[in-house]
Amino acid sequence: MPHQEKPRFDLSVYLVTDRRLAGHRGVVETVRRAIDGGVTLVQLRDPDAEGRALVEEARALVALLRPRGIPLIVNDRVDVALAAEADGVHVGQKDMHPADVRRLIGPDRILGLSVGSLAELDASAAALDLIDYLGTGPVRRTATKTDAGAAIGIAGLATVIEATTLPVVAIGGVDRTNTAAAVEAGASGVAVVSAVMAADDPAAAARLLAEEVARARRL
Ligand code: TZP
Ligand code: MG
Question: What is the distance between the alpha carbons of residues 163 and 86, in angstroms, rounded to a whole number?
Fold first, then answer.
């Protein structure tokens, strides 16, 4: 069913998928478990996947998530997002330009942009009114994305947050130990790959993050 209006979205516990880290459990089953712990948004990310398989996976995730009011965003692949009627697209600095993505996905889907520094925020200035949220990091070194760039720390995260009115989700090396610091720095939530995808118990791992986000908001 096509979208009527942009879905509301909550960046609190933002799960980014990883097929390798999900292992034999698989991406859809890992997401199924994780959402019991309080995941608020899911991004399907698989830079190596072939289109047909990725659309099938995106459709399976939409079927799982939409009844629960959890949006599905597709990393980079506008075509896959449209084919599977996902809720949005997330792009990085070298992916298709946000203006082109917005033209393709229309006004009513969520559009996220990765911004790793103030310089990248400045370079993206013309696109920012087309975007719904920023993903900023890596907060710490991460083995999950080899080209993620240098870690910017909580201080670097705070610098970007202070320079924009857009909601910012912290990404890269985020786990239960630095979630509260990210939220205290003004992040609207935390985006994680390994902390949940590689966990023995994805629901428990997501729940810990959700609790940390809630605790930090009360501080
Ligand atoms: N974008 C910036 S860092 C990163 C992505 C997708 C990987 C984050 O993975 P992890 O395992 O949460 O550090
Ligand atoms: Mg990308």
Answer: 30
Phi and psi at residue 94, to the nearest 5°:
-105, 0
Ligand closest to 14 (CA) is 1
Rounded CA separation 154/121 (Å): 16
DSSP tag of 91: E
Q: What does DSSP say about strands 189-192 and 133-136: parallel, antiparallel, or unpaired?
A: unpaired
* Substitution site in 90, 113, 133, 142 for ligand 1 pocket (most atoms within 8 Å of beta carbon): 142
The tens digit of pLDDT for each residue in 120-135 reads 999 999 999 999 999 9
Cβ atoms 206, 35 nearer than 8 A: yes
- Where along the chain do its domains lie? 13-218
pLDDT of 2 strictly over 90? no
Ligand 2 centroid–CA 78 distance in Å is 11
* Residue 192 CB–ligand 1 contact under 6 Å: yes
φ, ψ for residue 73 (rounded to 5)? Answer: -115, 140
The CATH code that applies to domain 13-218 is 3.20.20.70
